[in-house]
Structure formats: structure tokens, C-alpha cells
């Protein structure tokens, strides 16, 4: 007796002799896992995938070292204020009152605020230090003085950068402006802390007369953004999970046709989810976008296991065998198949541990743990509960409902399921060739699938949000302000968050040649960069700030000229003196956006031509960083996103090959150990390859790009494919070993497992496909891909495997890999 046989025998005894004790033990463990539920946190958005990328680190350093009018670090925020004219006295007073209240609330930890109203008020009263004093200066100014102050602030370059593009300096009118907020928090402040402060800041903004938070005064910051993106997960769960439950229960009714059996199956599914959630809490793994997909996956495997257990048990009971003996036969046959399915699926999941992305690694770990929990629960708990329930039925007047195996006898489903077996008798070679070519063609076509990554990819589908807005509570989604803010940034401030790339100069810029070297990076620009009339790159840097100031201030222009030995218009000596004069001028705010406070670094922003392919622009800025003598790091959202895409493609391919290699090795060794024929392991892999090929081809056909969320789908599809083929092949091997010819063994196999596979497929596809209802397109696409993966795996197991077995039986012996080879003799002599 092998170790596996001894394990199964131990499970048999526990399930059939002590079912009540087994159930009690599992419920006790469930209570323990429930304690981990309180430790679950959430993590969402694109930041999960960019943390360890050099371009992102450079972007973070820019946020810390430079003052920018839009964007900024996680500890900053902006208030977008709108009015008929944000330069009117009333609007300026309202803006300064908003700043005053934010700065005066010590609990908000606001270090400073800034706005166009500040600059105008300082023209009226240079001695005004607080926002309240500046508010009073504006309120008390005469109309003529106020108009002059606006003109002077505009001449100093302090108005246009803070107001919308509809700004008319002659009429002194603009419809929208930005108030910057900086919080006094350490860089290591938690997202929860930032979110709390920004949420409370919204209440303060709303308290100002004339302000309507979310309407004409919208606060936007990293904390608000992350909290709203996290809310997307909750909105998705509220809509998706009830729909999934309804569909799953409906198909479980079809599969089980017995309320008690269905209740046992559902209880086992709930235990699997609770154990997995609890594990996440104890392990400190946050609930993220990627992990939303774990739970439909667990439902898929759990439903499959449950239906197979009950279906196989019913087969034995129909022959008149007793409860205990029927369950022993069931577990003897299925626990081995469950082990094979679990281990191969775990290989597919654990292969994601090599991913460079934390969420994908978390997905692999959590899903693998969940699949192992599912194996334990459905191999031990569910059989024990079924045995206990049926014994109570014998003693108590409990009616029986559907007790026949799904797909058995002469039912219409049974006739449909025989199509694959019938084809294997008519034209097995043609079936194998057709499906193999189809899988290969799908895989070849799918190599052209697009890759995609951006913050916007995690945003909801606005059309779907509008559709769901009419749903009653709690199904109606949250109102997301960040979508409105992003539209305002793009429309009112021409901030498209993707039209530029940046060089982060990570070295001191106090040397005489520093500004000259920065200026040289704009000469002879690549074709992807926007250019000026002088055929230079359209760029913004401390050099362009110096040029602009020199054009407005003759005294500063003389200073620049005195320190320009080469006559290029760029200072090449005494640059510290030039910096001092620049920072002591009205251009200080703009200069600090491109020159660090300690002058130990600088930034250069390049505008990208409209319509240019992002990957080409990123390649050009990377080449520019390599060729400049400056220590420069290419960064910006485009560069970060492209870096993620590069890692994404590499990770997906690496995970796919790792999953397939481990699965192939394990199945070959397992069948060699269990049955003495490694060829049965290989039989399982051919349909899996076809499944993966069809799935990749479907991604391109349906225009579903490869993203960080669905990247694990390729490796996971191997586990899903093996799930279906293992059940078929394992049952066939058992029947073939018993002495049946290949054709008869296939007949018994399809009659015994075909119905269970169909019930599992229908329930799983509906449970996974319901993610199509998600408000996040990424999750919707992943649900579609998972459902397709299961459907393709089912079709291959029903249509391809029978013909593959026949072809292998006919021609495998030529290369010494036939189906026969002592299996029957060993079965007769030793049995199991």
C-alpha cells in the first residue's frame, strides 16, 4: 500500500466512522480563521504595481523635492474652486477664507496653502503673513487697487499657472483656479492617516460661505483618490457577489437537485471563503483589485469538487451499495484526482510569486492557500457531512429529492455529452488535428495582444456608473469626485497626465556648466518630442524659468548676460548668484518647481507630440538620459507605465512557462508513481495547451489587453484546464485498468464524469462571468477571461480527450508510450 493509499484510507475511516467529529473539528478551525477577518485592509489603484520601479522612485523624489502647482506628493492636496470669475473680489475673498480655515485648524496639520489669491493679496499688502490678513487686504482694497494688484501679480507670472486656460488677462477673468495644500506629515505617513486628514479638510472647505464641496470646491489628493478607488472594490462586491450568488445557487439547484445536498455544498464553499479571508488577515495581506478574482476562482474549484463528490457517490448508491461503502469508493477515486488538480493548480498560482508586482505575488499566495483549504474541506468535510445527512435520512422521515447522477442514463444531457466519444470512434485523428491546429492558431494570433497599464485603467466605467446610479441602496455606486477632477485638469488646465516625459537630474546643479548641460538636452530633439520655432524640444526647466524672468526683468537679464561667457543666453558661471536672484523674484514659485531647495537636483519636462506612440516617446527619453553627461533618470507617468508594461509581459511569460513546466513534471511523475505510466500525465497536458492557446487568441479577438490584474490568467488557465482533464483522464484510467476496452472505458467515463463536468462548468462560468457586471473594466475583463478559460477547458475535456486517448492507444505504442503496459495485470494482482 502506497503512502497515498494510506492517506485515503485514513480519510475514509474519518468520513464514514466519525463524521460528526470531523464536522465539529472543521467548524472549530473556522472559528479560529474568523479571527483573522478583522485584520484585513484594502489596497487599490496603480500605486500597487509601481512601488519598486526606478522611474517611480524618481517621480516620488520629484514630488518631495520640488514645488508643483498640480499634483504633488501623497501628503499634499488641491482644492479646485470654480466661479463666474475666480479673480473677482468675492471669489478671491472666498478662496483666502478657505485657506485661512484650513491653516487655522491645528488638527488638520496643514503646513501651508497657496493660490493665485495669495499673490494678488501680497501685491496689496506685502506685510500680510497669514491667509486671514491677506483676505482682509483683498476685502478692503478699492476696485482700482485690486485691478492693479491682479495686473502686477500676472506680470510676475503668479496668476496664469494657478488658473484655468480660459484666463483673459485683459478682462481679468477665469472660471477655475487651484488652491494648493501641503500637510505637515512625515513621508512614511499611512494612506489611512492622509485620507483621514483630507476627508476632514473637505468638511472645512464646505463650511466656508459660498463653497459647496464636490460642486464648486472639490478637494483632490492622494488620500481621497485612494479611498475612492478602494470604494470601487466595495461597489463591485455589492453588485457582483449577490448576482454571483443568485446564478450559482440556480445552477447548483440544477446540479444537486436536492436542498440538503445543496446546503452541504454551499456550506463547504462558505468555509473555503472564510478560511481564505481569515488567512489573509493573519498574513497581513491587503485586499486589492487582484484579490477580487481569487474568490470566484475558489468558487469555481469548490463547485467542481462538490459536484464530483456528490455525483460519484450517487453513482454508487444507484447500484444498491450502502452509505459508507459508497462514500469509500467515491473518496478512493476522487481524492487522488483532487490532489492532482490541487497541486497542479497551486503550481499555476504559485508561479505568480516570481512576479515583480506585490499584488500578483499576493494573488498567487492567497489563491494557492485557498485552493489547499478547498481541497481539505471538499475531501473531508463535505463527504462527512453527506454521510451524516444520509444516515439521518434513513432514521428520520426526511424525503429524498434528486438522487440520480447528473448526466446518467438516457437523458438528453447524456446524449449530448457522448458527442466527443462518438467522434473518437468516427474520426479521432481529424478531431485531434483540428483542435491542436485551432489551439496553435489561437496562440499565434494572441501573440499580438496589447498590453496596458495606467492609473486610468483602474477607474470605473462611467457609462456603467450612470446605469447603476438608478439602482436602490445599497446597490447604487458611490459618487466619485476624482473623475470630475481629472476632467477639470484635462479641460480647464490642459493637464492630460500623459503628454510629457521628465528627466530627473539627480546631481548638484551648482557647477558652472550645470545650466548649459540642462539646456543641451533640448537640442536636436527626437521626432517624438514637440519642438519650438528654434527646432528645440518644447521643454520646461530652470533654464526656461531664467529665460522668462530675464525677458520681464532688465536687471535680472543683465545678471544673466554678465555670467554668460559662451553667449548662448545660458549662465555658465556664478550660477548660485543667478539662482539667488531668481528665487528672490516673483518667479520663485515657478523656479522651485524645477530646482530643488538644496540645489542638489533639478527636473526637465518635455512635451510629447500629439498622437505619438507612448512606447516610442519613452524609448527616446530613456536614450536621452543615457547620452547626456548629467546623472539623469527618465520618469513621468508614461515612463512608469511603460516600465510596468515591460515587467508585465516578462512576468506573464515567465509565470506561464514556470506553471507549465512544474505541472508537466508533476503529472508525469504522479502517474508514473500511481499508475506506472507517465504517459497519462502527458495526456492531461495536451488539452491544457489547446485551452491556453484559445484563451490567448480570445484576448486579442475581444480586444482585452494584458494588464497587471489579468496577467495571472495565463498561468491560472493551466490549473483550470488540468482541473477538467484530470477528472476525465483519472476516471478513464480506473475503468481501463479494470479490464474494459478503450471504447467501453470512454463510455463509462463520459457517463460518470460528463454530467459532473457539465454542472461544474455551467455553475463556474456563471459565477466567474458575473464579474462582467463589475464597475471596474479590469475586473470585468478578468471575469470574462476566467469564464472563457473554464469553458475552453470543459470543451477540450469532452471533445478532445476521448479522441486523444484513442489516437494515443493506436499509435503511442510505436514510440513505446502506449496506453497498455502491465496496468491491468498489476491491477488484478495487487489492486489498490
Describe this structure in words.
The chain is elongated. The strands form three sheets. A four-stranded antiparallel beta sheet has the order 3-4-2-5, with helices on both faces. Strands 8-9-7-10 form a four-stranded antiparallel beta sheet. A two-stranded parallel ribbon has the order 1-6. The protein folds into four domains: 1-38 and 257-406, Up-down Bundle (Multidrug efflux transporter AcrB transmembrane fold); 76-184 and 190-228, no CATH class; 418-483 and 650-815, Multidrug efflux transporter AcrB transmembrane fold; 507-630, no CATH class. Helices cover 63% and strands 6% of the residues. α16 (419-426) runs parallel beside α30 (777-811) and α27 runs antiparallel to α28 (713-737). It is built from 31 helices and ten strands. With 832 residues, the chain is mainly alpha-helical.
Provide a count of the helices.
31
Count of structural domains? 4
CATH class of the largest domain: Mainly Alpha
Say how many strands there are. 10
Task: Give the strand order of the largest sheet, numbering strands 1, 2, ... along the chain.
Answer: 3-4-2-5
Separation of termini? 7 Å
| CATH homologous superfamily label of the largest domain | Multidrug efflux transporter AcrB transmembrane domain
Unreliable segments (pLDDT under 50, ≥5 consecutive)? 821-832
CATH architecture of the largest domain: Up-down Bundle
- CA radius of gyration is 33 Å
The fold-level CATH name of the largest domain is Multidrug efflux transporter AcrB transmembrane fold
Helix vs. strand class: mainly alpha
Strand content: 5-15%
- The share of residues in helices is 55-70%
State the shape: elongated
Q: Averaged pLDDT, please?
A: 81
Q: Main beta sheet: strand number and arrangement?
A: 4 strands, antiparallel
